[in-house]
Amino acid sequence: MALRLLKKDPCKAQYPDDTALIQGIMKNESKALNCLYMQSFGKIRQFITQNNGSEQDAEDVFQDAVLAVWNNIKNGKYEKQSNVKLSTYVFQISKYRWFEQLKSAKNKYNTRLSPDYDVVDEQDLEKVSEEAERLNYLTSLFGKLGDKCQTILKMYYHEKMKMEEIANKLDYTAKTAKNEKYRCMQRLKALHRA
């Protein structure tokens, strides 16, 4: 039986998760930005080169996206979301910047995108931005709820569990679970009104 040695990922050792990576970026650690590069650039290069871009285009767009992410993190405009990786956020910014470049070059060149991707217009970008702001707002309200409420609402809305399942998991009666969910929603609505 051969023994394989696995090479340790230096990024994972120093930045085991996005929270640590974000803190490194906030401290202007060049290693953090290098790790962000290693996590994100391959996908972005592939996307851009498959959609009429060059390696240089990918580097330029990626550099702009990282600068935007860095600014958003430093200025407090970026809120970490538990279900969205930082590399996904960088990819989305890069993708939309590339679409903007293609759109501005539309009069100069006849470009054809891979059918896997749709061109995004200004209204779509505004909708995405508004949706991201709304999601950040709701996430911040959700974070102000207690652990019990967060657990119940996640089970019901995110995991799509039935009230009976939630009751069993939390050792409640079905009626108690339903009442707790109602109270939690009322607290969430009160936070929204405040």
* Helical residues, percent: 55-70%
Output the structural class: mainly alpha
Overall number of strands: 0
Distance, first to last CA: 64 Å
Shape: elongated
Number of domains: 2
CATH topology of the largest domain: Rna Polymerase Sigma Factor, Chain: A
* Number of DSSP helical runs: 9
The CATH top-level class label of the largest domain:
Mainly Alpha
Order of helices and strands: HHHHHHHHH
Beta-strand level of the residues, as a percent range? under 5%
Radius of gyration computed on alpha carbons:
22 Å
Q: What is the arithmetic mean of pLDDT?
A: 81
Oligomer classification: single chain
Main β-sheet description: none
Assign the CATH architecture of the largest domain: Orthogonal Bundle
Q: Which regions are unreliable across 5 or more consecutive residues at pLDDT < 50?
A: none
